[in-house]
Each structure stands twice: as C-alpha cells, then as structure tokens.
Amino acid sequence: METGLTAAQVEGRRRLGRTNAVRSQTSRSLASIARANLVTLFNAILLIAVAVVLAVGEPQDAVFGFVMALNAVIGIVSEYRAARTLDSLAILDQPRAAVVRDGSDVTVPVADIVLDDVVHLGLGDQIPVDGTLLEAHGLEVDESLLTGESAPVPHAEGDRVLAGTAVVAGRALLRATEVGEGTYAQSLTRQARRFSLAASEIQQGTDAVLRVISWAILPVVVLMVWSQTRVAGGTDWRHALVLAVAGVVGMIPQGLVLLTSMNFALGSATLARRGVLVQELPAIEVLARVDALCVDKTGTLTTGGVRVRSITGAAGGGAPSPWARDALAHLGAPRDNATSRAIADVLGPPDVPAPGSGREWSVAFSSAHKWAAWGDGRAAWALGAPEIVLDEADPRGRAALERAGSWAGEGLRVVALVRAPAASAPQEARLPGGRVPEALVVLEEELRADAPQALSYFADQGVGVRVISGDNPMTAGTLARAAGLRRGDGGALRICDARTLPEDAGSEAFAVAVESHDVFGRVTPEQKRAMVRALQRRGHTVAMTGDGVNDTLALKDADLGIAMGNGASATKAVAQVVLVGSEFSVLPGVVAEGRRILANMERVSSLFLAKTTYAAVIAVLAAVAGWTYPFLPRHFTYIDAFTIGIPAFVIALGPNTRRYLPGFLRRTLSLAVPAGLALSAAALGAYALAGPGTAAGQTLAALTLITGALWLVSITARPLVPWRAALLAAMAGGAVAGVSIPLTRGFFALEWPEPGQWLVVGALGAAACLAIEVCHRLGGRLRPGRPRRDPSPGPPDG
After folding, report:
1. 344: in domain
2. Any keyword Transferase (predicted)?
3. pLDDT for the residue numbered 792
4. Fewer CB within 10 A of the end CB, N or C, for the chain?
5. Are residues 488 and 550 in the same domain?
6. How far apart are CA 644 and CA 676, in angstroms?
7. Domain for residue 417, yes or no?
8. Per-residue pLDDT, 196
9. Is 468 inside a domain boundary?
10. Among the listed residues 731, 736, 739, 733, the one whose alpha carbon sits nearest the alpha carbon of residue 709
C-alpha cells in the first residue's frame, strides 16, 4: 500500500520550488494591462502630436494629451479591478486533487502537488502532472488535447501519462515525475484556447476601421502640413504645424478601443459577481450572437446526481437473484461513475468471492462502449445500456428491453445486468456471447429547479436549444419536456436516436438531421463534436454547455464553450465561460450582458466614426479650398467632450436588451459616414459665412458641429428614456455654458456669437440634423441585417 510522502518531504520540495504552482490563467498583471492601454499605434501618434504642440504651439492645444492619459488611467483601473475580481473567483474555482500523504488520502489544490506525490485519478479528472502509474484499474485516458485522436487510450501499471489529458474510464494511482512549468497542463490549455479564441465582431470591426485610418493618416498629415504652410505663406509655419496636428488628432477615434476593452472588462466583473468566470473577455459578446445552444442533459438540465429507484429481476419483476445482487455490488464497487456510485450506495460493498472460485477480472465503464463488466471465473456479468447489452435475438432479452423502454418513456434511466458464461475478460472490450438478462436497475435523475426559467427565456429570445445526451432518447426527451424545453413554433419536440444519424458527419444530410431535431439520445463524444460543427456549417453561432470529459471536444469546437463549475477539470480548461455555481439559471443573465455590450457599443461606435469622417473630410476640403484649417486641437477636445466622450461613456454602460443583429460594422458605417459628411458640410458652411481664418469662423464651425453631433447622439440614444434625455440636455447646456463663461471661452479660443451668428448656427445645425435624420431613417429601411422593428418582446432597452 502506498503511503506517499511525509509532511517533511512535502515541505522540503516546496522550499525547492518543486510544486505544481503556475501562473493563474485568468490573471492579468498590472503591467500587462498598462501595456495594452498605453502601447498602441494611435497613442504613439498622439504622444508625438502632444510633443509637437508643446514645442511650437500653446499648452492649451495639448489638452487632448491629458484626455488621452485620463482615458488610459480609467481603462487601466477598470480592467485591473475586473482582473482582481476574476482572480478571486478563479481561486474559488481552483481544481483540486486527491493525494496520499503520511499514509492518508488528503485533498489539496492542484497547485500544491509536489514532485513524487502519489495522486489518485478517477473518472472525469484532468491529469494534473506528468507521472508514472503505480496502479491502474481499467484506466482509459482521453489524449485528444495532445494527439488530436478522440479514441480513449488504455493504460496499465508502469505506463507514463501526461498532464492535460483526462480520465474517461477507470481509476489509478500516479506518482508525479514532473510538476509545474515542467508539465503540459498549462501549455496545453493555452494552446487549446489559442486555437479557439472567442471571435468578437466588435473587435474585428473596430480593427478593420483602425487599419484604414492608419493608412490614411500619413497622406493627410502631408496634405495638412503643405496646405497650411502654403496658406500661411511660409511665415507662420509653427501655427501651420499646430493646425496639421489638429487635423490628425481629429481623425483618431481615441476612446473607441478603450471603451470596447472597458466594456468587456466591466462586463466580466459584473458576471463574476454572479458566479460566472469569463476566461476570455470577448466571450460575453459572443453569447449575444448565439442562436443555437446545445446542452448536455446530465449536469445542465439535471443536477448530475442519480439514485436507484428500484432493482428488479429481468424476467418480469420481483427481486433479482442473490448472485445478481452480488454481481451488481462488484460492478458498483469502483464508484468511478454516477451509476456505480448510486448502486454502491444501495447495495454496499460486495461479498468476498469463495476460495477457489477463480481469478476476478473487470472491464471499467467507458462512454465509448457504454457498459462495464466483471467476472469471477464462473460467469461474466455486464452492466450497461439495455439496447446495447441485451440480446434482442433472445425472447428474454426482447421482453427486458420492452420493460426498460416503458420506464425510459417516463423519463427514468435504466441499466441492464446480463450474465454470460466466460472464463476470462472479454478481448478488445467486446461483449461476451450467450448473454441472459438477470436484472434491471431503474435510476432517476433530479431536474434542476432553475432549468424551466432558463429554457423559457431562450425560447422567447429565439435561441434554439438542443438537448444532446448519451442516454436513451425517450428518457432525454421526457426530461427535456419536464424541464420546459419547447420549440419556438409551439410544435412537439422532435427526438432523435443518434445511432440513426448518417454515418458521414460532414455530409449535408447529417447537418439537416441535426438542425431539424431538438433532443438527441445515445450520442457519442465524437457525434457531439460533429453536431456542433454541423450547426456551424448551417450558419448558426453555437454555444455548448457541458460538465463531463465527453463534452470537451464539443466545447472546444463551439463558438462558445460553457462549462459547469462542478464539472471535470478538462472541461473547464477548454471552456471560455465557467458557471462556478453550476447554475443553469445564470445563463440568461450572461446572454443579456453580452447583448447589452454589443448593442451599446454599436450605438456609440457611430459617434466615434462620424467624427473620424468629418475630421478627414474637413481637412481635405479646407486644403482644396486654400483655407486655414477651421479647428485648433483644443477645439476638438471641446467638441469631443460634449458629443462623444461623456455621452458615449454613459450610454455604453446603460441597459439594453435588443437582440443581436448581424452586420455591426455595416450598420455603424451606414450611419456614421453620411452623418460625418452632413456635419462637415454644415461646419464648413458656417466657417465660410463667418470668415475663414477668423476666431468667429472657428467658433461658429465648432458650435454648428456640436449642434448636429448632438442630434446624432440623440439617434444613438433612442428611445429617449428620461435619463438619456437628461444626458442630452446636460451636454447641450454644457456646450452653451462653455462659450458663455469667459474663462472656458478664452481657454478654448472661442467667442460669444452675435445674434445673427447664432441664427447661422441654428440654421446650418438644423440642416445637419435633418440630413442625419433622413439618412438614419433611409438607412433603417435599406441597412442589411436590420429588421423594421425589434422583434423581441417589450421595450428594446431602458
């Protein structure tokens, strides 16, 4: 019997650093967060711009640098606080392992395992260290994260197993030979995530726009420097350089990337407080786009626990024979899966075989063949799914199968015990011939109390939920109905036995079959993965929930993998989202948070991109007309504060329940570009009427731009619930107050307009508002991917 390490040996290895501790995967250091917020292309451009202005201009024109620094500080603080929240949640979700120390079994965090520790391995465990097997009892290991092969690999005593792989059958004792950074555990998990990172439509769209802007900046800089120097006649090149800086600064959507990352970080922190660990920030946006949710019945709709309801003889009722009960006790003794534990809880330990009865053997349960077996030299006993272990060619087998089917129709799980003459373990995990039914074990599962509410939410939101289970299809269907699963059209649930699906998982027939059914039974791990891929080929954004090792491959391939907190370590390792409390009811809240972020970012993105449009257009047209550029850098700081910075931040953090609609970037640009053109026309018109190159012209251009831009804000803020209306009023009031107060007016180089000039601002501002409104309404009809009205029930947001 293994006694393991002593406390002194463990302490000695800890002092030498030979532990399994590695850097937390969810942790982001303050330095990495600071780098992400500071070291960017546009921050570099802005820093150069600040240096130029401070060298040749007035300090007031470098205020945009202070705004940039303030934005970065806000981003760093919010993301660091979010990271701290996620780290604290990750500690609660820290995987643990059973080890032998001082002759006793103790449970320790995986990070506390030391070199030469003796580790217990059981069904569903992710192997935490590299090591050598001291004992192995029917051990099968899923090495797909290493080799890509999904078939379980049997292992025997003396074999070497690697961290990052997972136990799918049997149990074992392992001596750790490599720990910490010397193992595959952390690197494999990072690789799995690197190849399955959640794809954020917001980030992809923003990156596409930023690439275009980065290419456009250099020619605009050259054009601005040349035109402003020419307008100044070469005598005031310093002022010309400051105006060129203004044109470039105006084109950069400073806060868009920051606001996106802040929204993700704050959203993750919000979900963390609800017991949801988001391991990849964009994952919460992906949930907003999900229209197909695949759930594993066990552990998602049910608690994952089962109990024995009854054990009857297979012939027609009554108690099973004593030798059948003893065989069941032997099959339950390993306690390495839910069924064996339930049987062991009822029958207790098995009797010791009689002397001379022959050598015992066993075949551990595997999800691949769906049965376990035991023998003592006189007979072989197999316990598993009735349709697999029962011999339909035998009348007794058919009768037992009919009885099992009737129970399955009531939502109960049934496993059958069969006996066959055999002197040794079956080869290649094949069932022995001549099987005779001996007993039926009826098991019942406990439905999660929160499942009906969550399923009802998804049905109302148009998310197709499919139950994918390894159990009997009728059992899965009955439980799904009891949990409240319903189709969007109100029709009856469509149930499918996965064994009847087309063999070619890549075929169109397979994809059609998956899309046209709601409940699947007898699904193999490979089929789960194929179902996810089939739905993706049919254009769906797929989320997959699961808690077992057999769900790992499907979770990895899904657009979003969601693991239950009480699930296997391997499952949580590849998931982007972990429900720490294993509560299915929190998923609607996760979806709602993703929709809030996506919808609000679409609202405010048009503000940033409209500014980029009008800044570029004004720069080009002013150069073509031979005018002094209308704005100093400080003017853009003033305009941005009231039309982008403050309103975008407030609106982006507000509630929003609008359903996801594809085409984020197209919709944003279809409003931002026409709005930017209208605003540039109005601003240049006011500038021309007041006199190019004058302070009055700059003031009128700025106020006209603010008037039209606030109308764009009102469009993005609709419906104008009281708090948004108050925000708009405050921004308009602040803009007027800025030109009425001498201190701020002087600081921002503005003038108080004459009455006639206010009329110009009002007329051209109103024209810009009208043009923006027309573009918005016309775009609402023609914009791809946008319905005429929000199909979701109730108000779109509030």
Report:
1. yes
2. no
3. 34
4. N
5. yes
6. 13
7. yes
8. 45
9. yes
10. 731
CATH of the domain at 324: 3.40.1110
Domain with 295 in it = 275-302+448-590
| Number of domains the chain is built from | 2
Give yes or no: residues 582 and 516 share one domain. yes
Nearest to 461 by CA among 284, 285, 267, 658: 658
Residue 62 to residue 49: CA distance in whole angstroms: 8
Q: Are residues 579 and 460 in the same domain?
A: yes
Those residues with Cβ within 8 angstroms of residue 233's Cβ, 6 or more apart along the chain or in another chain:
none
This prediction has a pTM of: 0.65
DSSP readout, 418-487?
EEE--SSPPGGGPPPSS-EEEEEEEEEEEEPTTHHHHHHHHHHTTPEEEEE-SS-HHHHHHHHHHTT---
Q: Where are the beta strands (DSSP E) in 357-410?
A: 361-363, 371-375, 380-384
Digit-coded pLDDT (tens) for 335-371: 877 788 889 989 988 876 544 455 678 887 776 678 8
Residue 68 scores a pLDDT above 80: no
| Among 688, 734, 739, residue whose Cα is nearest residue 713 | 734
Average pLDDT over residues 780-790: 44
Beta strands 96-101; 104-109: pairing state: antiparallel
Number of H helices, E strands in the chain: 28, 21
Please give the C-alpha separations between residue 402 and each of 289, 370, 398, 409, 570, in angstroms, as whole numbers: 43, 19, 6, 11, 37
Predicted confidence (pLDDT) per residue in 732-768, tens digit = 999 999 999 999 999 999 999 999 999 999 999 999 9
Indicate if 296 belongs to the active site. yes
Same domain, 375 and 296: no
Q: What DSSP assignment string belongs to 750-788?
A: --PPPHHHHHHHHHHHHHHHHHHHHHHHHHHHHSTT--S
Catalytic one among 296, 326, 547, 551? 296
* CATH code (residue 559): 3.40.50.1000
